[in-house]
Amino acid sequence: MLTETEPHYRQPLLRTRFHERMRAYSQVDSFIPWSGYSTVDVFTSVEQEYFAIRNSASLYDLTPMVKYRVAGPQATRYLDRLLTRSVAKLSPGKVAYAIWCDDRGQLIDDGTVFRIAESEYRLCTAERQLDWLLDSSIGFDVEITEVTADIAALALQGPCSCSVLRAMGLQGVEVLAPFEFKHFVFGAGTAALVSRTGFTGDLGYELWVDPSEAERLWDGLMDAGRVRTIRPVGSRALNIARLEAGFLMPNVDFVSSAHTLRNGTARSALEFGLGWLVDFGKGHFTGRRALLEESRRKPLRRLAGLDVAGTKPAHNALLYSDRAGRRQIGSVTSAAWSPTCKRNLALAMLDAPHFDMGRQVWAEIYVNRELVWQRRMVPARVVERPFFAPARRRATPAGDF
Amino acid sequence: MSEAAPVPKRSNGRDRPEAIVVGAGHNGLVAACYLARAGLRVLVLERNAYVGGAAVSRRLFRGFTYSNCSYVCSLLRTEIIRALDLPSYGLQIIPYEGGCTLMRDGGHLALYDNHDALRREIGRHSRRDAEAYDRFMRDMLRHCRFIKPLLLRAPPDPTTLRPRDLRELLYLGRHFSGLGEERMYDTLRFWTMSCADLLDEYFESEIVKAHLAGSSIIGTALGPRSPGTAYVLLHHYMGSIDGTVGAWGFARGGMGAITQALASALRANGGEIRTEASVDRILTRNGRATGVVLSGGEELHAKIVVSNLDVRRTFLESMDAADLPQEFLAQVRRFKIRGSSGKLNIALDGLPRFPAIPPGAPCIRGDMHVTDTIDMLERAYDDWKEGRWSRRPYIDMLIPTQIDPTMAPPGKHYMSVFVQYCPYHLAEGPWTEERRARFGQTVIDSIAQHSPGFRDLILHAEIRTPWEIEKEVGLTEGNIFQGELTFDQLLFNRPIPGYAQYRSPIRGLYMCGSSTHPGGGVMGAPGANSAAAILRDLRR
């Protein structure tokens, strides 16, 4: 997968097999690093790309997402010990969103786990953590390999994504339910694993192919999607969509406990409201004891969704319980104006009891008026997440638009 | 940034100094600067014809400037640089990128600043270690965060009830308990374990471990498997350049640029420096320091004498045993300050070629090594125990002229080669010219094994054994840290239990060298802390 023209000390970032296609499409030459690869921040305009996600169909290069193959007779036992949710309950052909913690119940990472076969899984993660996965495997008959470079992947997201796949010849893809995957063959015999998953909270799919098929996949989707105004999108557009869907962004909304230096900055899974991913009944897993103890106490803080007054995104805003700003009760981790909801959204970590639904807090926002900076105290209300959840994301069979 | 200190009236020669600092090393000069800034008349006495101690730049061969002793900078406290405004006296510290270990099989491991380049580089040796490296650095930074606030504070004496000590103990206690439970366990383990054990907790690749282990034995007569060496490793991570913790760099113009800037800052604050003024004896009367007598017999008087010499040289060689308490002296004699390292400074006709380093790789501008396993490092230490220099020594070589244009003529290069292990006491007899030359040859052979044609590039080489370093710089046994950085000689036990706060059994006699907390490296913290103790005693 790594298309490498220069050695790593001259060109530290790898290029995915979609790089040439993306470069040809890029108008503003805005590339950023993601997990050791060069990826696109913006192709043409963030707004236009965002609306491809919410209005038609969008293509996003998912290749840099870190992928591990977990296989062996005890793969299920291993993952059940590693992850907080039950893997034994996941049947082959299904995907699950999952988190994992250290012994103290502090969040290491989140990701998705694909049950490829009875005793073979694919674990997609935000951070590289081979040492943690290998150390956790001691005592289990399981083999763990990083396969990031062995798989090329594209996310096809948006209301027209199913019709694009059908136009490309994927017969019966519409009956694929959310968090299911299936192997398809299209065109001149290109094999792809297609999962109904995504990071947009919309109807969408992720397509996983052998790197040698990458450009054929890209071209096939672009051709099939032309009449549906498909367009490649960069990370900035995707970031607005994922916030509307209420998804966490690693190193933005949380810092892995594997990276925190300061005592007290690591966060437990429960503080992110991810208790629904923790299965205390499944037997032992790493972090169980700490999470169980914590679940019996009143939470000290929690991630909450905010609807902020005004239109100015509350990036990094400090949050207060009072308008005068005397008592800080948290801070914003992600913020954006939502073009679909027409609301000013934010994710914030808030101290108890301020994360309770419906409570009002005050956000300190700095606004730039032609370099005359002003400080605004803006009211914000704790609201339900996801902020945006269209029925089409779950509808099976999937609709045309 | 620089507070305007009152410039005292210049000493007219008849004015007696209020404080005499013995030795113009970096810590002596730092202490002198702080005292002069507080308005004291300060006189610094230096035995050599030049200031700097072990932070010097000397021109021994035409057109070349060597950093004769210490050669890279990281630990010098930013607080001191700012307080004394050293940049305005010409100090410039430039970070360098990465480094590498050249392997016996022709391979190499490099470290790069860019995280992705580094991960891919380590991944060539072990995919797992590439990711374990992040965890290792996280833990190193966690330990650094614990230790850094303690560097510019006198360690509290846990046996007294003086309010200041209680306050400082309380600070230390709060600081420690703020670590959280797991890290408290880790901290105690870390301060006492061996570097090899520490690295085994993270890495599987021999070359990764060997590269990282180098810093754990520098200046220390211990091997990578000796308990206590993990801390020495940390000691090399706790510096920073411009906020990048653990970064190392070059002082533009060589390490002498640091002491030259300090000397200028001292003079600007009214302090005086006399070179070629070798102190023969520190004078005392009735348990009080009264001044010093120079080797020519001249007596200089002051109520405060500050010794930049190591603790052994201060109390065993510069004082009368009759003036000092017996148990104190016994402890001074036991203070571990063993010579374990040598140094080569080499003028080169051109940039040496290292075939193992791929063309264009920036690691050649960092620290280069040739020890590729922990065992090889431990064997090198075995030689030291037998009283001979390592047949396959650990070397830390840098070519600063790739970055610093001031140290060699264009196209020519200066190479600094730190060598370990090299004993002060040779089993085969005392150091002679012939043995020194053979030692130098061993080092040059080690380099030449990785650099064809290296010998032909050598225009001049200064070869320094522990014996030369002691003779010239005055460090006992040539120990670069003025005493080893092992847990039994750290914090309130450095240098001597009960005397960790820069004071001595003689009133008015203070210590300010690296023998004191927080120890060696060109850090300046002992000098600054010592001056703070003196000014507290003077209530200034």
**Number of discrete domains of chain B:** 2
Radius of gyration of chain A: 21 Å
Q: What value does the average pLDDT of chain B take?
A: 94
Q: According to CATH, what is the topology of the largest domain in chain A?
A: Gyrase A, domain 2
What's this, in brief?
The complex is a heterodimer of chains A (401) and B (540). With 401 residues, chain A is of the alpha+beta class.
Describe this structure as you would to a colleague.
The complex is a heterodimer of chains A (401) and B (540). Chain A is built from eight helices and 19 strands. In chain A, strand 16 (328-338) and strand 17 form a beta hairpin. A six-stranded mixed sheet of chain A has the order 10-11-12-9-3-13. A six-stranded antiparallel barrel of chain A has the order 14-17-16-15-18-19. In chain A, strands 5-6-7-4-8 form a five-stranded antiparallel sheet, covered by helices on one side. With 401 residues, chain A is of the alpha+beta class. Chain A has helices at residues 19-25, 46-55, 75-82, 130-136, 161-167, 214-225, 235-244, 288-296; strands at residues 30-34, 37-42, 58-61, 66-71, 95-101, 107-117, 120-125, 143-146, 152-157, 181-186, 190-195, 204-209, 231-232, 301-308, 318-320, 328-338, 343-351, 360-369, 372-383. By secondary structure, chain B is of the alpha/beta class. Chain B has two domains: 19-57 and 73-92 and 252-336 and 481-537, FAD/NAD(P)-binding domain, CATH 3.50.50.60; 95-234 and 337-473. Chain B is built from 17 helices and 21 strands.
